């Protein structure tokens, strides 16, 4: 399934509580922090809700969100 990279570009200060919670649910914590998620209608809906705070990019061949866990599992 395709993956997308979501980067927080603006502060969540002085935004609606619902939008702050959406950023939290996406896993974004601060400006310039990014996360990689599967491209699904649910994630797209969340991104659409906070589109004025984030930037979305398509990622080709992205690894899992936690590469250290993957390394530990192989050992």
Description:
By secondary structure, the protein is of the alpha+beta class. It has a single domain (3-74), classed as Ribosomal Protein L30, Chain: A (2-Layer Sandwich), CATH 3.30.1390. Helix content is 36%, strand content 23%. It is built from 3 helices and 3 strands; from the N terminus they run E-H-E-H-E-H. Strands 2-1-3 form a 3-stranded antiparallel sheet, with no helix packed on it.
**How confident is the prediction overall: mean pLDDT?**
88
CATH class, named Alpha Beta
Question: How many beta strands in the DSSP annotation?
Answer: 3
CATH topology: Ribosomal Protein L30, Chain: A
Q: Look at the structure and name the CATH superfamily.
A: Ribosomal protein L30/L7
Treating each run of at least 4 consecutive H or I residues as one helix, how many helices? 3
Shape: globular
Q: Based on the structure given, which CATH architecture is correct?
A: 2-Layer Sandwich
Helix content: 25-40%
The end-to-end span amounts to 27 Å
H/E element sequence: EHEHEH
Radius of gyration: 13 Å
Q: In terms of quaternary structure, what is this?
A: single chain
Main sheet attributes: strand count, strand direction, barrel closure: 3 strands, antiparallel
Q: How much of the residues is beta strand, in percent?
A: 15-25%
């Amino acid at each position: 399934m395709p993956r997308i990279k979501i980067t927080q570009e603006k502060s969540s200060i002085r935004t609606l509580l619902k939008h702050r919670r959406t950023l939290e649910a996406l896993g974004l914590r601060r400006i310039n922090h990014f996360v990689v998620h599967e491209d699904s209608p649910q994630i797209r809906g969340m991104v659409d809700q906070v589109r004025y705070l984030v930037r979305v990019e398509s990622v080709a061949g992205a690894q899992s969100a936690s590469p250290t866990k993957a390394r530990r599992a192989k050992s």
